[in-house]
Specification:
CATH architecture of the largest domain: 3-Layer(aba) Sandwich
Distance between the termini: 74 Å
Shape: globular
Strand content: 15-25%
Helix content: 40-55%
CATH class of the largest domain: Alpha Beta
Structural class: alpha/beta
CATH topology of the largest domain: Pyrimidine Nucleoside Phosphorylase, Chain A, domain 2
Number of domains: 4
Length: 495
């Protein structure tokens, strides 16, 4: 069947979708979610069918194409294409099998991951897969095979090094920007640490968002390799190099329902480490009422799972369980966090000491694993001598940033509000969720200069009228929204 292309000027964000007029759909017995094979000359692709009820949206004899389909076919408005009915992807049968509680084989998981990467599965079908893994669970074998399939169908950073270090945090603590200090310390010690990080989904900043204040993070695999070969480290956005393309697509579906199937979570994390060929991985599990891991029992359970699965993937996993009861550092939001990182590396008296204490512990653990004696003292020497700061400048320069950037000149949002103590006493709770939500409503991480600066932390004594935190925003309305949010949910408690 030949149809004329109508450019819908809409992108789905990945999934390949084409719209057919209802009249044509009835004629050719097509239904919502059916697959069609579309051909234009030497180009072809499979797309999921949407049905347009009005002639205005998609007239009879036309096919409405979303941007992703147009790109695949190198097509433009009014081109003529051929369509044929296509079989449903084989992964759908395996998703149905998982829904029935049956274990999936290596081949079946590989097929699902391949179809996720190639955008052959709809968001509805992916939701069923995630739900099946959540409700029925994943065995260790399934988790390992799933992680290996994610690595196989994504990019890989291949370095000729015997030891490659990496780190991951399970999340939930605003300001926990340890990677940006850990990487230059480890690199300055002579070891390799290529850090790929995510952009924020629910927090005021991810490591990639904060590093982007100092240098470009959307590096190609080739560029990453050059940076690491030159400096021993890098801090890049993993999404730019598709190191775990399937996982990134699944995260977008998992996020709205806050579904984190354990097997999928473990595979997600370890696949990204395997993609950079990490040999030693440090896992930070913050525990607190507002973090993903709520108690020590959960943390210990996860520690065993990480170690077991990591071993089967050829990695040595080392877990530290940390305090996640309140935000860490002083700045929350990309620019404020970048300022804090540079102050720490420059040994500024105003540096975030709680962040420094945590990083020293983590870096010492990694160096100890590498066989370095007196590892903690070595870490302190690297910081105090300025070696870590010089290494960070090298990394910033290699990634295309300004190595001489002055932390005090990093621009912040010009609209501010300082929250002051309503009474004298001791701060006994600074709620992570409140801080994260208020900072995000103020504009972070999209607005780099937005966020929160913490003047005080938990256990600090305050007098009535003393500043506890300042909100920064680049937009007057967003600041008002942030204040409205703060008024509704509270989150700072003094007694």
């Amino acid at each position: 069947m030949k149809l004329k292309v109508k450019d819908l000027d809409i992108a789905t964000g990945g999934i390949l979708v084409a719209a057919i007029n209802a009249e044509d759909a009835r004629k050719f017995d097509l239904y919502h979610e059916d697959r069609i094979l579309i051909k234009r000359g030497k180009y072809e692709t499979t797309a999921i069918v949407d049905i347009a009820e009005s002639k205005k949206a998609v007239p009879p004899g036309c096919i409405g194409m979303f941007e992703e389909v147009l790109d695949k076919l190198h097509a433009k408005h009014n081109d003529v294409v051929d369509i044929d009915l296509e079989e449903k992807p084989e992964g759908i049968a395996y998703i149905r099998k998982k829904l029935k509680g049956k274990q999936l084989s290596k081949k079946e998981l590989d097929a699902i991951v391949k179809e996720i990467v190639e955008d052959d599965l709809s968001s509805v079908e992916l939701t069923y897969f995630i739900s099946a893994c959540f409700m029925k669970g994943m065995t260790v074998k399934e988790t390992v095979n799933f992680a290996k399939a994610i690595v196989k169908h994504g990019g890989q950073l291949k370095l000729k090094k015997k030891q490659i270090f990496d780190k991951h945090c399970t999340g939930g603590v605003p300001g926990n920007r340890t990677s940006m200090v850990l990487v230059p310390i480890i690199a300055a010690a002579g070891f390799v640490m290529p850090k790929t990080s995510s952009r924020s989904i629910t927090s005021p900043a991810g490591t990639a968002d904060t590093m982007e204040v100092l240098a470009p993070v959307s590096l190609s695999i080739e560029k990453m390799k050059k940076v690491v070969q030159k400096t021993n480290g890098c801090i890049a956005w993993g999404g730019a190099v598709n190191l775990a393309a399937a996982d990134d697509k699944l995260i977008r579906i998992r996020h709205p329902l806050a579904l984190d199937p354990e097997g999928m979570l473990l595979a997600s994390i370890l696949a990204k480490k395997a993609a950079v060929n990490a040999t030693h991985v440090l896992i930070d599990i913050p525990v607190g009422k507002d973090t993903k891991i709520k108690n020590l029992k959960q943390a210990r359970h996860l520690e065993k799972k990480f170690s077991t699965i990591g071993k089967k993937m050829g990695m040595k996993i080392h877990v530290i369980i940390t305090d996640g009861t309140e935000p860490i550092g002083k700045g929350i939001g990309p620019a404020l966090e970048a300022r804090g990182i540079l102050r720490l590396l420059k040994r500024d008296p105003e540096r975030p000491m709680d962040l420094e204490k945590k990083v020293v512990k983590m870096a010492a653990k990694l160096l100890h694993i590498a066989g370095v004696k007196n590892a903690k003292q070595k870490v302190l020497n690297i910081l105090e001598s300025g070696l870590a700061y010089r290494k960070m400048k090298e990394i910033i320069k290699a990634q295309g940033g300004n190595p001489n950037i002055d932390p005090e000149k990093i621009p912040l949002g010009k609209y501010t509000y300082t929250f002051r103590a309503k009474k004298s006493g001791k701060i006994y709770d600074i709620d992570n969720v409140t801080i994260a939500k208020v900072a995000r409503v103020a504009g972070a991480p999209k607005d780099k200069g937005a966020g929160i600066y913490l003047h005080k932390h938990e256990t600090f004594k305050v007098k009535k009228g003393e500043p506890i935190f300042t909100i920064y925003s680049e937009n007057k309305k967003k600041l008002k929204f942030a204040l409205d949010m703060l008024g509704r949910i509270g989150g700072i408690h003094i007694k």
